[in-house]
Amino acid sequence: EAKRQRDGKPRLFRQAQEDELEERLSLERELRLAIDHDELCLYLQPQVDEAGNIIGAEALVRWQHPERGMISPGHFIPIAEETGLILPLGHWVIQEGCRVLGEWRNIPALQGLQLSLNVSVRQFQQPDFADQVLSVIQQHDVPPERLTLELTESLLLSDPDGTIEKMQQLQRAGVSFALDDFGTGYSSLAYLKVLPLDTLKIDIAFVRDLALGMQATPIAATIIALAQSLGLRVVAEGVETNDQRLVLAQLGCHIYQGFLFGRPLPVDAFLRTIVEDARASLPHK
Ligand code: C2E
Ligand code: MG
Ligand code: MG
Ligand code: MG
Asked: b/e per residue, 4-27, with b = 16+ CB within 10 A?
C-alpha cells in the first residue's frame, strides 16, 4: 500500500509539490537579478495587412537565462505579477520598446510601422503609469503615434474610472490602445464603448478552429462584427494557416499576426527581414 505522510498526501506527490515550490522560488530570485544582468530581451512578431505588408509588430519579452536557456513569458510573467517584479520588468519593456522605436525613426523602410507593447494590469494601475510612459517617449524622442499599448479586459474589473482616465491622458498625447486576448476575459460591452480603444485583438483560441467550408466559429464572427460596429480595428492573433486567413478575411478581419506570417524574432533579425523585403520590392534597375 502507498505510504502516506501525515497530511494524507502520497509522498511522491508531496515531493513534486516541494520541487515545484523550490523551482518557483529560485526563478523568482533569479528574475530579480535578470533585469540588472541584462538577461531580458524583446522579440518582435510582424502584423500584416491583407496584401501581406508588414504594418506593425508586437514586442514579446524573452528571458535569456544563463543556465536554463530561453524562458518564455508564459513561465515568468505570472511569477513577476505575483511578486510585484512586473513593475520593474514592465518598465524595462517600455524603455526598451521606446529605445527601438527611437532607432527606427531614421530608417526609411520602417516609416509608419507601429510597435505594440504588452502592459500588465498591475503595471497599468500604478497611479503615475501614464506619466512614466510619456517621459520615456520623450527621452527617446519617439513619435507617440507609433506606439500601441496592449491591455487586457481584466483591467476593467477593479478600477474602470482610473483606467479610462489614464488611457485618455495617453491617447491625447497620441498613443493607441489595443484590447488583447479579446473574448477570453470579463468584458462589459458598455465599457467597450467608452474606452478610448483603437483595436480589438481576437484571441488565438477563436482563430484556432477556423477552417474553410466549416461554419466559422460564431465567436470570431461576433468579435469582428462588434469591432466593426464600434469603429475599431481588429487584429487576429495566432494565424497559422492560409485557410484561417481566408476565413478571417471573409468575416471582415484584415490584419493578421501569427506563424503564417512570421514567428517572433530578435529585434535585429526582424529588422533585417523588413529591410530585405523593402529592397526586394524596389523596381529593378
Ligand atoms: P499575447 O500578448 O497574447 O501574445 C501572443 C502570443 O501568441 C505570443 O506568445 C506569441 O509568440 C504567440 N503566437 C503568435 N503567433 C502564434 C501562432 O501562430 N501560433 C501560436 N501557437 N502562438 C502564436 P509569447 O511570446 O509566449 O507570449 C505569451 C504571453 O506573455 C503574451 O500573450 C502576453 O500576455 C505575455 N507577454 C509577452 N511579453 C510581455 C511583456 O512584455 N509584458 C507583459 N506584461 N506580458 C507579456
Ligand atoms: Mg499581446
Ligand atoms: Mg493576445
Ligand atoms: Mg494570448
From this structure: eeeeeeeeeeeeeeeeeeeeeeeb
CA of 6 to the centre of ligand 4 (A): 41
- Residues 146-203 have pLDDT tens digits of 999 999 988 888 788 899 999 999 999 999 999 999 988 777 788 888 899 999 999 9
DSSP, collapsed to helix, strand or coil, labels residue 32 as helix
What residues have their beta carbon closer than 5 A to ion ligand 2? 118, 150, 180
User: So what's the ipTM on this one?
Assistant: 0.97
Residue with cell 494590469: 121
β-strands 233-236, 199-202: how paired?
parallel
Q: What is the DSSP letter of 84?
A: S
- Name every protein residue with a CB atom under 6 angstroms from any ligand 1 atom: 45, 60-61, 72-74, 77, 90, 93, 118-120, 150, 180-181, 204, 237-240, 257-259, 264
Residue nearest to atom 19 of ligand 1 (CA): 238
Distance 14 CA to ligand 2 centre (A): 36
